[in-house]
Amino acid sequence: MKLSDKELYSIVYPASEDKPEHDILYSLFPQMDVQLSRVGVTKLMLWEQYKENYPDGVQYSQFCEHYRRYEKSQQITCVLEHKAGDKMMVDYAGKKLHLTDPQSGEIRPVEFFVAILPCSQYTYAEASFTQQTPDFCIALAMLYNGSGEFRRP
Fold it and tell me: Mind listing the pLDDT tens digit for each residue in 44-56?
């Protein structure tokens, strides 16, 4: 029996999501997706939980590969057009960072302010001690140089 390269490849490397033993793994991914959106949760942590429940399950590298395939199958994209100078997006990002005072060694938590002009992708970031109005206004003011133009990094 003679097989084409494609047929031979499909026998040697079958599409893994079609294997029955991976049905359980793929059924777990939607909940894992929710957990990964939480701060501090990693794929490694989720894989370790998976291995506790399914000791004969896939190893970490295959887990990551299957999860990547799952993510790709879930991707829905939308192209947004941005007019130059029309808008700026600002927010405080992620977990608090920490600054260390070089003289005293005191470690202080700081907020991380980020602003972006979506058309040009110019980005500005700055640490401040709080997210309260005065610090927010100072961060916004620091975006602009004296001419009213967005400050380049």
Answer: 999 999 999 988 8
Distance separating alpha carbons of residues 90 and 149, to the nearest angstrom? 16
**Residue type, position 70, single letter:** Y
Write the pLDDT tens digit of every residue in 99-130. 998 999 999 999 999 988 888 888 888 888 99
Domain extent listing, the chain: 5-74, 89-142
3-class SS letters over 72-134: HHHCCCCCCCCCCCCCCEEEECCCCEEEECCCCCCEEEEEEEEEEECCCCEEEEEEECCCCHH
